[in-house]
Every structure is written in C-alpha cells, then in structure tokens.
Specification:
With about 100 residues, this protein is an alpha+beta fold. Helix content is about 35%, strand content about 10%. It has one domain (about 1-90). Strands 3-4-5 form a three-stranded antiparallel beta sheet. Bound molecules: iron/sulfur cluster.
C-alpha cells in the first residue's frame, strides 16, 4: 500500500505540475460552502482529476484569513500514512499540500 500511495502522490504532483486547474477559491469558510463542495464531489465521477479540481488542491499551503492552510495542520490528515481521510477525497497527500476543504 505504501508504494501504491507513493505512486499516487507522484501522479497527483505530475498532474498539478502539468497545469491541472483546480478550484482553489473560494475556500470552504461556511457550512453552506462545505456542503456545496461536498455535494459536488459526491455527484462527480469520483475520478482523481474531479477530486483534485473540485477539492481545489494545491502543491503548496494556502494563506487564508491569516492562517496557513496545509494538509499537515488539517483535521483530516493522517500523519503516519500521509493520507487525507475525508471520505469524499480519500487520497494520499504530502504535508505541504492543501485543498479548500481544509479544516482545523
Ligand atoms: S481535507 Fe485537509 S488533509 Fe484533505 S486534502 Fe484537504 S487540506 Fe489536505
């Protein structure tokens, strides 16, 4: 599983570096916005690109409202697995990555 996850992280990084445009803004500040983004993720095809685009992934932390939002400080981040356990995303990530569903 570790190798599979490493390969998936490398794949995600490549997609992002190749210019995949993700919806970095607006950040999910309100419960309405969280619900809207989650609903879109649930009704999408669920493939990797959809999750990255709708989730608004970035390869670097995003400064928002005076807070640096990075996977490593997000409540959904599993440190030892370097994994996002938000059910609608379920994807291996790097600690310095971010998405707009970041939550403390
Ligand atoms: S929900 Fe949190 S851990 Fe998951 S990708 Fe977004 S910022 Fe990273």
């Amino acid at each position: 599983m570790t190798e599979e996850h490493d390969a998936l992280r490398a794949d995600i990084q490549l997609r992002m570096e190749n210019g995949l445009k993700t919806e970095v803004q607006p950040r999910a500040d309100s419960s309405e916005l969280v619900l809207e983004i989650i609903n879109r993720l649930q009704s999408s095809s669920g493939d990797l690109d959809s999750r990255l685009v709708i989730g608004g992934f970035t390869l670097t932390p995003v400064e928002h409202g005076g807070i640096e939002q990075a996977c490593e400080s997000c409540m959904y981040y599993l440190v030892h697995k370097k994994y996002c356990e938000l059910p609608e995303l379920e994807v291996p990530v790097e600690p310095e990555w971010s998405c707009r569903l970041w939550r403390i």
